[in-house]
């Protein structure tokens, strides 16, 4: 077990498997509270752990993640700025936690496994899936990214990562048009490695990884990851920075603000959902 006490994630270490679990199920594991900062801290902790081979990212409850929580993000703020440069700097500052979380994933030494226990929407679908080394999904999983409908852009390098994972044309359809993709489609596209039943999903993931550890040498698997990712590392970080810049410019233009307001109005009174800017409805 981790010695650090976390509020919005659960970190467990079982033998050679470290598991980070988003733990905001009432908000569909949206990126509010301390979730991003604690995920980054857990990634750092597991990066330095002497025994783990696999780092697994998954979610508690029926969703993997519904993306960013507007009520906690400040992205729909009415704050005024002296000029566009000041406005852009303010938004870039707000995006910094996501930048560091993605950097910690890109530079992570262990085999990074994303285990989609359920649907992932917006940032929940875009940020982690294309950056994973192994992608596992439950039968209840779907991915949907509605950035374009909200006046946004693919965040934190997801345009590049998803294109590398499923091909440019499929990634464009998903990112430009907000097409929803099922777990079966994602497997057909070569993005998802294995699909497990929703019931008992976490146990199936753990069993699958334990079987790999019985069959394969942990250090060798980590070396495969290092050799494969080394030539991609700098390009991925550049893609994260470019996307962060483009996203800030969208907010300078004011494009997302009216769309955010419309989305919030649609979601008012829906007690089972937080107001996530990426929510697909």
Automatic annotation (TrEMBL):
InterPro entries, per the entry: ClpP/crotonase-like_dom_sf, ECH/Chromodomain_protein, Enoyl-CoA_hydra/iso
UniProt keyword annotations, A-Z: Isomerase, Peroxisome
Domain of life according to the entry: Eukaryota
Subcellular location: Peroxisome
Example GO biological process: fatty acid beta-oxidation
Pfam families: ECH_1
A cellular component term, taken from the record's GO annotations: peroxisomal matrix
Pathway: Lipid metabolism; fatty acid beta-oxidation
One of the record's GO molecular function terms: isomerase activity
Gene3D superfamilies named in the record: 2-enoyl-CoA Hydratase, Chain A, domain 1 (3.90.226.10)
Major localisation: other
Family named by the database record: Belongs to the enoyl-CoA hydratase/isomerase family.
The protein's name in its UniProt record: Enoyl-CoA delta isomerase, mitochondrial
Origin species: Lachnellula hyalina
Recorded name of the encoding gene: Eci2
